[in-house]
Specification:
This protein is mostly helical. It is about 65% helix and about 0% strand. The chain has helices at about 5-15, 20-35, 40-55, 60-70, 80-90, 100, 105-120, 130-135, 145-160, 170-190, 190-205. The longest helix is centred in the last third of the chain and has 19 residues, at about 170-190. The chain starts with a helix and ends in a 12-residue tail after the last helix. The mean pLDDT is about 85.
């Protein structure tokens, strides 16, 4: 799951409990300390929120809502608040996490690919997602690459993208996106596949990520 999608999930989970003015510093806290940690670290995040807000929170309920947003359909998440968060950072003289600021081209490619995969999979009936990934995996042997790369691509497809794209380079991500597109064509037909890809690309372009999704096509 991309940083953008994770941020959307955290924003969605918190939005019903805090005002916009309160949300932005909480998102910055999550982005700085918790964005790269597993879901169980959300307990620490909520403990910090309780200390900062100085009010009683239904932490068990809030935890369930955050986990639900992180594991649920991307289509149900609120839009990425990155633009407002960026303005808040400038106003308060703080910067984005070092990992984002020092991202390499491959890091940027992985972030954009994960956002694009999230957007594409969000347009597919969840019951058909296993079929899509299986069809994509069936074409792995046609790739002109070494067995190790094919194994990593298969692992990604077997987990429907939940593993993330760590370790995959730009060329590998282009291969993987092409496999997914071929699977979409087999599943939906070329016309609907093109429409889905176009919609997903447009969604990701609106996020304003450092690397355009067009560079993956």
């Amino acid at each position: 799951m991309s940083l953008s999608t994770r941020r959307r999930a955290i924003y969605t989970g918190l939005a019903g409990h805090f005002s916009e003015e309160e949300l932005l510093p909480l998102l910055w806290l999550w982005e700085t300390k918790y964005s790269e940690k597993p879901s169980f670290a959300l307990n620490g995040f909520l403990a910090e929120i309780a200390a900062l807000s100085e009010r009683k929170l239904e932490r068990a309920r809030l935890y369930r809502e955050l986990v639900g947003a992180l594991s649920g359909p991307v289509s149900q998440l609120l839009p990425d608040p990155e633009a407002r968060l960026q303005a808040w950072r400038r106003k308060h003289g703080v910067v984005a996490p070092k990992s984002a600021a020092n991202a390499t081209p491959d890091d940027q490619a992985r972030e954009t690919f994960e956002a694009l995969a999230d957007a594409l999979f969000g347009l597919i009936d969840p019951e058909r997602l296993p079929q899509l990934c299986q069809q994509a995996a069936n074409n792995l042997n046609s790739l002109r690459t070494d067995a190790g790369v094919r194994l990593r691509l298969r692992s990604w497809l077997d987990q429907y993208g939940r593993l993330g794209a760590a370790g995959l380079e730009l060329d590998h991500l282009r291969m993987l996106l092409n496999l997914i597109y071929i699977g979409l064509c087999e599943l939906l037909g070329p016309v609907l596949a093109d429409q889905a890809l176009t919609r997903a690309v447009q969604q990701v372009e609106r996020l304003g990520l450092p690397m355009s999704p067009q560079k993956l096509l």
